[in-house]
Specification:
The complex is a heterodimer of chains A (560) and B (378).
Chain A lengths: L4 E4 L21 H5 L4 H29 L10 H20 L2 H15 L7 H23 L13 H5 L4 H28 L12 H33 L12 H35 L6 H14 L15 H29 L8 H18 L1 H5 L1 H7 L3 H31 L5 H27 L16 H31 L28 E4 L9 H15 L1
Antiparallel strand pairs in A: 1-2
Helix pairs in contact in A: 2-3, 2-4, 2-5, 2-17, 3-5, 4-7, 4-8, 4-9, 4-15, 5-7, 7-8, 8-9, 8-10, 9-11, 9-12, 9-15, 10-11, 12-15, 12-16, 15-16, 16-17
Chain B lengths: L3 E2 L2 E2 L9 H32 L16 H29 L7 E8 L2 E5 L5 E3 L1 E5 L4 E7 L4 E5 L4 E5 L5 E5 L5 E7 L11 E7 L1 H9 L10 H12 L24 E3 L5 E3 L2 H9 L22 H12 L6 H5 L9 H7 L4 H4 L19 H11 L1
Parallel strand pairs in B: 3-7, 6-12
Antiparallel strand pairs in B: 1-2, 3-4, 4-5, 7-10, 8-9, 8-11, 11-12, 13-14
The chains are: A mainly alpha (560), B alpha+beta (378).
Chain lengths: 560, 378
Amino acid sequence: MSTTVKTEVGGMEHFHTNPELNYLTNGHSIRSWLLTEDHKRIAMLYLMSVTLFFFIGGLAAAGVRYELMSPAGNLMESETYNKLFTAHGTVMVFLFLLVAIPAVLGNFLIPLMIGARDLAFPRLNLLSWYLYMAAGTCIMLAMLAGGADTGWTFYTPYSSMYSNSNVSLTLLGVFLGGFSSITTGMNFVITIHKMRAPGMTWFRLPLFIWGHYATGVIMLLGTPVVAITLLCVIFERTFQLPIYSPELGGDPVLFQHMFWFYSHPAVYIMILPAFGVISEIMTAFSRKRVFGYHMIAFSSLAIAFLGFLVWGHHMFVSSQSMYQAVIFSLLTFLLAVPSAIKVWNWTATMYKGNVVLSSPMIYGIGFQGLFLVGGLTGPFLASAGNDVHLSATYFVVAHFHYVMVGGSIMGFLAGLHYWWPKMTGRLYNESIAKWNGILVFVGFNLTFFPQFIVGWMGMPRRYHYYYFAPEFTPYHILSTMGSSVLGVGFAVPAFYLLHSLFKGEKAGDNPWNAHGLEWATSSPPPTENFRYKVIVSDDVYDYDPVAEHENDMMAAGGKA
Amino acid sequence: MNWNLFNYPMNPPQASNFASEHDALFYAIVAQAVFFGLLTFALILWFAVKFKKGSKADRSSPQYENARMEFWWVLVPTVLGLATFFWSTKIFVDMRTPPKNAKEIFVVGKQWMWHVQHPDGVRENNTLHVPVDTDVKITMISQDVIHAFYIPAFRVQFMTVPGRYTQLWFRPTKVGRYHLFCNMYCGTQHSEMGGSVIVMPKREYADWIAQNGQVRENLTAAQTGEKLFNKIGCGNCHGANDLIPRGPSLRGIFGKSRETTDGRKWIADESYIREAIMRPAEKVTKGYGLTMPAYDKTFSEEDIMNLVAYIKSGASQSIPTSTIAAAMPGIQARDLAGKAGLNSNAMQFNSDRADATPTRRGSAPSVGALAVEKGDQQ
């Protein structure tokens, strides 16, 4: 059990909360939700919205995949296809991946894990959700009005001078989403600096917090750059302000530099929080302190720093100088090291632990398998010489889906399963959840592994037709079949989690018997998070695998 | 190395000087990735079983930090990464440094077409003829948005950017026909901005250039027109059927009624066809956009007479081979259709639908139909 010292404290009266109430039951009106300043309720608002957008983005992906099953297409015209993959990318990146783990799990857990009452700026937190919803509304309206057809990367001068679709409205949405991200990041960084409970030193912070700290820094430093970059596209579209288009005197490649200056670190906004989740899960379900705590914490910071220095590896074939490309290639190889460290540290955590294969752990191991492939296919693209051939092919598509979907979404699902009992106070059907974790893993590999091969053969991304290259067909058929399996795997949790919300067994405060401040309060937590004043006196992850093993052996021996 | 999946290739053909070294590096990274990936995942699964809660495995003296071990974890990927970096940089620098005496060919990218201009004045669209074993430097620019000139079989790719020249070079090593793709999303018909690279024996290429892009033969007007049709790449937009949304099929249109976007109806006679080639803006077929460039300054009257003769003859013989199923290096069309087990309905596809509009794709053929069409005509 957690050895955190808790002293009951007077002076909590100003919260005026009934001890019977938790954050979910403390107010039932719609107003009490829409104007809430409680980080846990805002996290739930985020959870509902990201889920909605995830399924919208997923439908677009399904359209793309089914269209590609046949080399000459059979469902739609090129224009529609282009709008579908743009919708898929834009919604998934800006409305799901950048938001899902930080704004749902991070929002919910950061104050709980550091023993705080709330985030530093609760109203700013609510504002960030409204900004996010405004972003979502703009992007959805743009889709309903006919959609944008630029791809989620909005490369100029196509996006600024040539596309006749709803680019400006979509960009406005992304711009607003950027401010949601900035406010969230700022809130996280300041909360972690200033609101830790007494005794919660930097090296007693759970690795989830370290991951979110690094994420917050990237959000703060990177997002303003992409916001202004995209705003400039709107200006060029609307007022012919000469920035990117050579016809007006601008530089089209400038856009790529500024876009990737943010969008490469943005990959780490998506994956660092997932690293945090996996660090928590590997240690809780190995029932052993994580191996190399300091190394994992520092590797998050190293990734956040180096992440800003590698954007040029997206541009090896886009007219930057050869010497620039070589330097970016070198820095990219260096960046691969901290990610490799983390995977090996998690593996070593299991060694001599007491591994419990509960559903979060199944998703967690699934994450490791998929992220391994995503990570190990990075060096192909970091090699400038190889990237000349592979750049912008399906190899790249497969690589970043292994990182984004295999990493970020598996991490999100793992975390959601782990903290669901804390968030809702209910248990879900454990065996369905486990089997579904395996289903997602299989479906994912079936969908994206063939894309490595077809990309290596030269299939360009964002191609509607490939009738001129029928040798690509079998891989697209395999991939589409896999995506059906994956679609089922993503839909099933929505059902069993919703079911558990209403009919699930009561979870109790700590169903996994895990250590950490969030498990020391009740489930669901009260509005003020802790009914006690929290003072931390022990190290993080104070599991005792040896004693636990001896207990297990005695229990087994007793039965025998 | 040639691997197959159900008789489909699993790797691109190697047809340039870069291919083999590039592939060696690729397979070296594959080996690293497979080794470390399998090792790590196997360890994860093994630990999950061996140290399952309640198992008898030894748990004494567990470790939580081990500086020496972690030092190796940093060192091994760093060293391997740096080795890969130096190797790949050598290849990259080679790719970015064209030899001084390379033959220079100019390419203009434009929504959604590649214009190629050979130094000797020969021009072609969406096809690139190059002599084997000769250093070729491509100097490129875009007329509108950013495109990327990509030849997978050569392992070369570079963006064409409006407002500045970019370059790539290669030395073809194997005679044949290979894919040419645009690999930077450039708008509606991005996926169809491409065609073929045709690597010819040196002498054949010299003849081809000497004949202004035609192979020396005694030909009828229709056959000469067909050669010209293929050389200029008309078939990239005017296919054997109306599958290609850039332009209508010209198969059997002669003497038929045509409707233009302005609502006027025409009989496709000689002067209609001539006008449509020279000033296509005047005669845009209903259902299509104006993507075709004007050829009034490109063709001599003689060329146009030959082209008209070819279209008059039915324009049916070589269109499919040049546009649809031909660009399949290393794979036989019949093998594709037969061994992939495509059903017979697909094979009975009738491509002769002059009235089909490009917006209705309900009966688009599967790959088998396209491949068989090629096979039948060989």
